[in-house]
Amino acid sequence: MNFKHRCINDLAWVIQSPPVISGNINGSHWLNKADCEAEYEACFDALLQLDQHPEPLLNALSHLKPYIIGKRFECFVQFWLEISPNFELLDSNVVLQGKTQTLGEADFFIREVATDKIIHLEVSVKFYLGVDDLSQMQHWYGTNLKDRLDIKFNRLANHQTQLAKKYPELMPFPVDESWCLLKGRMFYPHNQQYTQAFFADNCPQGLWLIAEDKSYQKCFLALDKSQWLSEISQYQGKRQVAPSKIEHSVCMAEIQNKKEVARYFFLPEGFWAKNRHPSSLIDTLPLLVR
After folding, report:
1. Which residue from 8, 60, 126, 273 puts its CA 20 to 30 A from 47's CA?
2. pLDDT in tens, 196-222
3. Count of H-run helices and E-run strands, the chain
4. pTM score, two decimals?
5. Alpha-carbon distance 158 to 161, whole Å?
């Protein structure tokens, strides 16, 4: 369902969209598609009410810098936990301070109503571009190539979700379980769309390609980071085309009948080579021809 307000569609996407990775990993439960679907159903009536009066959510978002998508995502997660009948939000952004240094920061502590369990929940949203051998986590990059899926996964699996085990005395509550929620969208090379074993079922996908000096016949809408979450459902603007000569990566939505049908990243020519990616794909990857 599409809601009237863009921010409510984003909140619904944060709740309902399939995670990037799920399963039982290093003793922690990484939420799966069924978990997210169940939460969306449980929160649906609250979302409808919030769509009528979105001011509390809009006010919370107004204090955030729109280009810092991680903080924006955390704000949506907090609203989700506050409206969910299945959880009670106990605390958030808890800094764990050791004797001489900060040991970490825990995202959320929640109580599961049905079981009365106290859960430490870590959350993250990521948008990665796959290159070369797509079956390897280390070949999935953010547009800042210092950000890689394998690095993020290891940080979540071996540090963030292990905080309650490592430092139980620093927890504000006795933690029964640790959960993780990793959401986002994975962008495949043009004409190479695969689903790899380490991605969760129906993980949101897109395509990346190299922009070139050609006339594109499709209608594209350039998206700023605050628009990277939910799909565009009510585009009322004029026809736009994909970029030709660009200096930086651009996230765009393909629009048909005023709705988004696909998500793209357009990259400047030489993007991978300029960032010194070692892959042999750099020299052989053709420009997109339409």
Report:
1. 126
2. 779 998 999 999 999 875 656 788 999
3. 8, 11
4. 0.91
5. 7
